[in-house]
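Is this the right way to post structure tokens for a design question? Let me know if I should format differently. Anyway, here goes:
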């Protein structure tokens, strides 16, 4: 007869965790996705709060204030040499911008042209198809890209650099690229027309980038350079990285 093995007693740390602890830890780890859901629900029931010209004037307080706070925190948390390293990484630029401006538009253009060629009854509105192409040609998002990269444990500095490059190139690349990729059928001609006056668009885009992205990032980097140890202590003590995530949730509202 073989001797029975006796399992060692459970240590104190190995004791079965209560269900409330498991649920709490799950919420803590997934609070970004849960927050997005809460933001969408709030937007549905209280649309007057976050709409353009609403109670909190979201076109200023959120699109400028919340986004600026996200990039201020990024500037406080990322070392300058790490930003410079990724700024000089041309392979990263080719990969990220190539996917953003070449691969994704190519895939979407193929799908749109397939639908346009086979949808004889035009059940799909051609303005929707044109919107797909325009959306595919747009540069990557600004705030959500950086915050989600940080939340996923990715390289925030690399994400930040690619966001800058993409949104500087976007105003110059996207309009012409989107028009060039439109199907040749007459239904899309209205989307190819342009009055050629893009000055107002460029002013608005670069004003937004300057005030909500470049300026707060520069201020954050300056503060970090001047008071590196104090900045690191404040970032850790007051969980400022979590604050930037909360700002992103406000964008959903």
């Amino acid at each position: 007869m073989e001797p029975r093995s006796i399992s060692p007693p459970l240590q104190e740390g190995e004791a079965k965790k209560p269900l409330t602890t498991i649920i709490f830890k799950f919420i803590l780890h997934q609070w970004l996705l849960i927050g997005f859901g809460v933001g969408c629900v709030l937007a549905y029931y209280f649309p007057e709060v976050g709409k353009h010209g609403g109670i909190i004037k979201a076109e200023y307080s959120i699109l400028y204030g919340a986004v600026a706070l996200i990039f201020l925190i990024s500037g406080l948390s990322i070392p300058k040499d790490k930003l410079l390293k990724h700024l000089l990484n041309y392979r990263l630029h080719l990969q990220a911008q190539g996917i953003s401006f070449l691969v994704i538009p190519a895939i979407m253009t193929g799908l749109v042209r397939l639908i346009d060629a086979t949808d004889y009854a035009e059940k799909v509105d051609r303005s929707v198809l044109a919107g797909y192409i325009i959306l595919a040609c747009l540069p990557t998002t600004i705030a959500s890209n950086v915050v989600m990269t940080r939340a996923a444990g990715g390289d925030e500095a690399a994400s930040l650099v690619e966001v800058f490059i993409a949104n500087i190139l976007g105003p110059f690349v996207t309009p012409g690229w989107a028009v060039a990729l439109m199907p040749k059928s007459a239904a899309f001609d209205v989307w190819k027309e342009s009055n050629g006056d893009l000055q107002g668009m460029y002013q608005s885009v670069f004003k937004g980038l300057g005030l909500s992205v470049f300026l707060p990032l520069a201020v954050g980097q300056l503060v970090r350079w001047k008071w590196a140890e104090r900045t690191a202590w404040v970032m850790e003590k007051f969980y400022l990285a979590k604050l930037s995530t909360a700002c992103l949730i406000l964008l959903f509202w």
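Format looks fine. Someone answered above. Worth noting: DSSP finds twelve helices and no strands in the chain. The chain has a mean pLDDT of 88.
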